[in-house]
Design brief:
This protein is an alpha+beta fold and about 270 residues long. The protein is about 35% helix and about 30% strand.
Length: about 270
């Protein structure tokens, strides 16, 4: 199953980037927004021996430094001995993420019984088809992220993503959560065959822990099932407090992803 999720993850990121598949690795890049970490990174596809892994990471470091890049981000879906990182040309920050999934059929059974997935009955969720809903979702995204990302980058980031949403509206849906007519959150739903991916999920801080996030998951689980998806998954930081909400909604862990992030001197 994890292989299916990882393949879907690759297809998802290709919607936003150019890519260079070199066999062992794939380099993803987005010339429109080169300082966006999630669109510019190297993906290590298969497990390597320690020596080969160090060689490959150091090669990517040297390449990015030669290009004058300010960072290198690497993703991999396999474990390795962290002690070997001392042999790298730089010291990375390390983060771990969990793949969490649910079978849409089972999820809809839970929804139908009114068990864990109850949410906030006062909210509404709309798929962005009209420009009005796109605009509402953009405003919710900026408000949810500007404190961490900065207002300028938040605007640049969501503007770039909206371009892709509009071009792929049948496979990449943009959903906006409303409370009393005000946009207070948003989320993506990517459909690839029998797999659905939930991504870029935000609820504005003042509306968190009030059931809105659960309502979004409930709605998108139903949407995914209606589109014929058998599984819905998301990726979350291993330490993310939202994991408890995902667990209550029936999602379970399928595997892990490791991120190495190198800040590079210019």
């Amino acid at each position: 199953m994890l292989d299916r999720l990882m393949n879907t993850e690759t297809e998802y990121i290709k919607k936003f980037t150019s890519f260079e598949d070199l066999g062992e690795i794939i380099r993803f890049s987005d010339d429109r927004i080169p300082d966006m970490y999630t669109h510019n990174f190297t993906y290590f596809k298969d497990k390597m021996c320690d020596t080969r892994l160090i060689e490959a990471i150091n090669k990517e470091l040297q390449k990015r430094k030669t290009e004058g890049a300010t960072f290198l981000r690497i993703e991999m879906n396999f474990d390795f001995n962290l002690d070997i990182l001392k042999d790298l040309l730089g010291a990375p920050q390390i983060a771990k993420y969990d793949y969490m999934y649910i079978e849409t059929e089972k999820g809809m059974e839970i929804t139908g019984k009114g068990m864990q997935i109850t949410g906030n009955r006062d909210c509404t969720i709309s798929k962005a088809i009209s420009e009005e809903v796109f605009f509402d979702g953009m405003q919710a995204d900026i408000k949810a992220n500007e404190a961490v990302m900065g207002a300028e980058f938040s605007r640049k980031r969501i503007a770039r993503k909206l371009e892709v949403y509009r071009q792929n509206i049948n496979s990449l849906g943009f959903y906006v959560c409303y409370s009393d007519g005000h946009p207070i959150g948003k989320c993506e739903l990517f459909i690839s065959g029998s797999i659905a991916k939930l991504e870029d999920f935000d609820i504005i801080e003042q509306y968190q822990r009030r059931g809105y996030g659960t309502s979004v998951i409930k709605h998108l689980l139903e949407e995914a099932g209606n589109y014929g998806a058998e599984l819905l998954y998301l990726i979350t930081n291993s330490d993310d407090t939202a994991k408890e909400m995902y667990k209550k909604c029936g999602l379970i862990k399928a595997g892990e992803k490791i991120e190495l992030f190198f800040g590079l001197e210019v």
